[in-house]
Structures are given as structure tokens and as C-alpha cells.
Amino acid sequence: MNTRTWKLVIVPALLMTLAACSSNQASAPAVSPSPQPTAAPVEASAQPTEGPKVTPAPAEAAGVTVGESKQYEKIAISDWKDDRTVVVSKQNDKLGPISSGELKGSYPQSLYFFHLDTGEYELITEKANMMLGDAKLSADQLFLLYSEFSLGDPVYNVMDLGSKKTFTIKGDTIAGAMGADWADKDTVVGPAYSGGAYTATATSMKIAPVEGLGGEGLIVVRQIKDKIYYTSNSKDSLHSLDLNTKAKADLNIPGTSSVIPSPDEEQMLILQYKETTQSLLLSGTDGKNPRTLVEGTELGAVSWSPDQRLIAYSVALEENGTTNHALYVYDLTSDKSVQIAESNGTMTTSWSPSGKQLAYTERDDSGSSSSIVQLKY
């Protein structure tokens, strides 16, 4: 007999009890990017994708109707340009195999725009002997933040999609970037190997340490409006730094491992480690009175829908001694979750600009594959 242990506890979190700054969240208009100047076209790949595998739609649950799901083998979707175009990383056999190191014999991974309607790949950037991935567009879609690695830790780069000029986030003042996220349409922020945090400006290609955080070994670094939220090696409680006044505050949320700002930057999701579980918390940006949405032994793949009604997340589950991951969508209007998928690998998620499609990428020892699920709500 199969025995399955679900590592999940759903805890009600009424939207009406949120901080006053978020009282209108459920009815907030969709935060879809307004039309922006597009980058100069690049040569389209002649390699069409294999036909996606289609999964029938399950029944409606939790106020959300889950439609069909299409799977795309051997690609990793990391972002959306529009509702019909995604940013992907995939193998590039035109460059030849990697020549040395642990990845010797493997083919490099390059970045592409993948057109869902035609199945064509449009090359963004490639580099011999390098694995490129984790690509995220800036809010105005003029720049691309991405990682590259072949040996050791990843290196982060910012590309101007119009000119194709690229700079690497490293230098004497920060040594290098331990992590990187968009702070606004022009600025990247993250922890520095030299200690403290850095900012990297896409237009000027200027990299600078963040005043007030120098010397601290930081782990989590995320900017929301004029504040940087961070944890350090010595203090895992979430802290904030006001970039205008330089005032610091302890938000008294110990065990913070990740901060995910809402699209309107009035709220944030916080992944918190406890002794044997993780919690997904929702709070205003002041960190006061955080609400627990989900608890489980291992949570991940957290992302907001553009209208802030839905939250995607994964949770670990056990079956016959094997740990798998289930993907859910939490509906803040009903305080209920609906399951989207299961995977034997780890997951990441990304919402389309309309919020009607959710992409998730599964990674395991055999590589990556991505799926796109249609949602109605």
C-alpha cells in the first residue's frame, strides 16, 4: 500500500486582517507593464521546439479554474516578455561542448526568447563554455539580468537588449555579486562578496557599495522602494535600512531566508525557517503583524500574480520514502489553495503579464523542463 505524507499545513489568513496599506489588494487592478520601446530585433533561430505535451484541465477549486497545461522539454522558463513570448535557457549545440572542468563534454546553455505561437527561438545571447540562465527582464524590458557559470559560483551580468552591451557585476569595491535582483527598472541590488550590499545601474553600468551596510556579511538583500531588507551571517532576523535617512530597524522576523515584494511594493512575502518547518508569511513592508499563509517542511517557488490575488508556491511531500514537490496556487480572496502539479525535482515559477498563465520549471539530475498552466479566476 502506498503511504503519502503531505508536508503541508494551510493556515487561514483573512485578507481583511492585513495591514491598512493592503486593504484594497483583492480588487487591485492588474499590474501589467505598459507598452515600452522594444529592443532591436535579433536573428531568429530556425530550430522549432518539439510539440508540447498537453495535460487536460482539472476541476475548478478555491475560486480558481485550472486549465490545460503544456510541457516543454529541455528548456527553463525564467520570465515573460508578453503573454506569447517567454525568456528561456536551453542547450546550444552550435557552440560545441564545454572543453574543460566539471561540465566538460556538456553543451553550453544560451538565452532565447521563445515564441509560444510559432515554437521558434530568438537568440538573446550566447557564450562558449558557459551556462547562462536565471534571466529576468527589467520592468521596462530594456535590460536583462542573468547569471553565467562554468566553474564555482555564478557570475551576474546586465545586458542592454538594444545595443547588446553587457557588463559584469564585479569590481574592486564589491569583489563580486553573491546574488542579484532588480530593485527598479534601472537598478540591480544584491549581497557583495566583500561584505555588505551593492547597487548596479543598468544605464550607466556603475557599481557601488550600499552606504550603511559595509562590512556586514549579508545573505538576503532585497530592495522595496527606498528601503533595503537584509539578513546577515550573524543575525538571521530580517532588518531594514532606509536609504534616505540611513536608519536601521530590526523587523523581528527570525529565520528569514527570502523576501518577495508584491508588484505594487506595498506588501511582501517572507520565507521563514523554524526548527523543523518553513512558513510563508504575508505582511506590509513595515514587517508588523505578519500573517502565516502556509507551513511545511520545505517551501519554495514563491511568486505573486501581477494583480496580487494569487501566490504560487511549492511544498515538499513524501511518498514511499521519496521526497517530491507539489506546486500550489494560493487564492487570497478565499484563503484556499489549489494544486497545480507535482514534480520529483525542485521548481521555480513565473507569471505572464496578464496573470492568466503560470510557468513553472522543474530541475533534477536529468536537466530542466518547463510547463505553462492556463488559469481563470
Give me a quick take on this structure:
With 377 residues, this protein is mainly beta.
Classify the secondary structure makeup into a structural class: mainly beta
Rg: 20 Å
Oligomer: single chain
* Number of helical elements: 0
Strand content: over 45%
Mean pLDDT: 86
Kindly state the number of beta strands: 31
Q: In terms of per-residue confidence, which ranges show pLDDT below 50 for 5 or more consecutive residues?
A: 1-51, 54-59
**Main sheet: strands, sense, barrel:** 5 strands, antiparallel
- Can you give the helix content as a percent range? under 10%
Apparent shape: globular
Query: How far apart are the first and last residues' alpha carbons, in Å?
Result: 37 Å
What does it look like?
The protein is mainly beta and 377 residues long. The chain contains no helices and 31 strands. The strands form seven sheets. Strands 1, 25, 26, 27 and 28 form a five-stranded antiparallel β-sheet that branches. The chain has a five-stranded antiparallel β-sheet with strand order 2-24-23-22-21, with no helix packed on it. It has a five-stranded antiparallel β-sheet with strand order 3-4-31-30-29, with no helix packed on it. The radius of gyration is 20 Å and the shape is globular. It starts with a strand and ends with a strand. The model is unreliable at 1-51 and 54-59 (pLDDT under 50).
What is the element layout, followed by pairings?
Blueprint: E1 4-6, E2 9-10, E3 53-55, E4 65-73, E5 75-82, E6 85-91, E7 109-115, E8 120-125, E9 131-137, E10 143-149, E11 155-160, E12 166-168, E13 181-182, E14 187-191, E15 197-201, E16 206-209, E17 218-224, E18 227-232, E19 239-242, E20 248-250, E21 256-261, E22 267-273, E23 278-284, E24 291-296, E25 299-304, E26 310-319, E27 322-331, E28 336-343, E29 346-351, E30 357-364, E31 367-376
Antiparallel strand pairs: 1-26, 2-24, 3-4, 4-31, 5-6, 6-7, 7-8, 9-10, 10-11, 11-12, 13-14, 14-15, 15-16, 17-18, 18-19, 19-20, 21-22, 22-23, 23-24, 25-26, 26-27, 27-28, 29-30, 30-31
